[in-house]
Amino acid sequence: MNDGRLADAAAFTALVREHQSALRGFLRRLTKGDHALADDLAQETFLAAYRKLSQFRGESSFASWLYAIAWSRFLMAARRRKEEPLEEADGEAFHPEAASITKLDLEKALCLLRAPERAALTLCFALGMGHQEAAAVLTMPLGTLKSHVARGREKLKTLLQDHTP
Questions:
Q1: What is the DSSP letter of 88?
Q2: CA–CA separation, 49 vs 99, rounded Å?
């Protein structure tokens, strides 16, 4: 390996160290706490990012670019595993009583949300991205992102409040 490639590898290793914890947290929320799957997806994300590093143009932050790759990897894995539908049907009812526990902690409540809502809330609130940046990461229109955030917040509010029988 020549000196340039060694420097690139060292720089990429530093970026992995900087972003791996937050990226794994994002993927764990998307995978509803499946640590093994989230770690596999994180590894796939970093490998894809390394292979595509020449495609990073700096139009967004490196973190945004990395989360976009992670979201794409998550969607591909969900399709392969034929998991939950990723698009919410119009008029689909949300029933908080489906949860048998009366008060849920945040992580458990997030698991009850649809994947786009979990992703939008995690990017905007846990990772501090603005709506525009989060919409770019998730490759969805700004209005759709805002709808996922609003709908997800309302569902969380309902799930996290005390329910009395």
A1: P
A2: 38
- Global pTM value: 0.78
Give tens-digit pLDDT for 30-69: 999 999 999 999 999 999 999 998 888 888 899 999 999 9
The domain 94-165 is placed in CATH, from the list 1.10.10.10, 3.40.30.10, 1.10.357.20, 3.30.70.3270, at: 1.10.10.10
pLDDT in tens, 6-40: 667 788 889 899 999 999 999 999 999 999 999 99
Q: What is the CATH number of domain 1-57+65-84?
A: 1.10.1740
Domains 1-57+65-84 and 94-165 alike in fold: no
Q: What is the pLDDT of residues 71-118, one digit of tens each?
A: 999 999 988 887 655 554 444 455 555 444 444 478 888 899 999 999
Long-range CB contact pairs, 157-163, < 8 A, 24+? 158/94, 158/96, 159/96, 159/99, 159/104, 159/109, 159/112, 160/103, 160/104, 160/106, 160/109, 161/103, 162/102, 162/103, 163/96, 163/97, 163/102, 163/103
Closest CA relative to residue 21, chosen from 42, 41, 37: 42
